[in-house]
Automatic annotation (TrEMBL):
GO terms for biological process: endoplasmic reticulum to Golgi vesicle-mediated transport. It comes from Mixia osmundae (strain CBS 9802 / IAM 14324 / JCM 22182 / KY 12970). One of its GO terms (cellular component) is endoplasmic reticulum membrane. Residues 164-180 have a biased composition (Low complexity). GO terms for molecular function: unfolded protein binding. This is Uncharacterized protein. The chain crosses the membrane at residues 7-25, 55-74. The keyword Transmembrane applies. PANTHER family: SECRETORY COMPONENT PROTEIN SHR3. Residues 162-191 are annotated as: Disordered.
Amino acid sequence: MGIRTGVLLFASSFLLGAFFTHWSVDYKTLWTSKLLDSSVKSAHIYYHDLVRAPAWVSLILYGVSVLGLGSTLAKMVEMNQSTLLFDGASLFLQLTTLATYHFDIRNAFDLLPPLSAGSAASAALVGVLKELASAHTIIAVALTGVIGLQAGQFYADKVPPTVPQSTASSVPTSPVQPSTPNMPSSPRKRK
């Protein structure tokens, strides 16, 4: 594993862990069959506190994302089939993650009603909370895909290619003997 792959795995794992922390409230709002008022209230308080977090928290997430994108682009300098397949797909998933965070999550934070709104904003609040939970799920799946693609690339680069059995039997085992230059290519009868 090279340093560029290590940086990419670090960035993806860090971001996956950062977004996995939201699972405690996302599970109760998106994945349970019955949405309880206590779940909505705890998720509202959680995200309200997250919105009020210092700006450097969001900047760290953007910085680690840019670090991962930079290492992927640095890996793509070697243009071979493995790079195009694995790193190209990783780049797509990273851009999906960044776009989901920037356009879905940041916008949902702006739509989050204040804590004092109470039950009057309940329908709007549930919609925003479900949007946040689904965006976090998309990000988690994309980052897991990046890690899986890098593991697949590592495996594909380390395992020697094997020749299928049907092809191996048709390949000659001895090298072809070159014809001598003095011999005619077709025998002729002399009269």
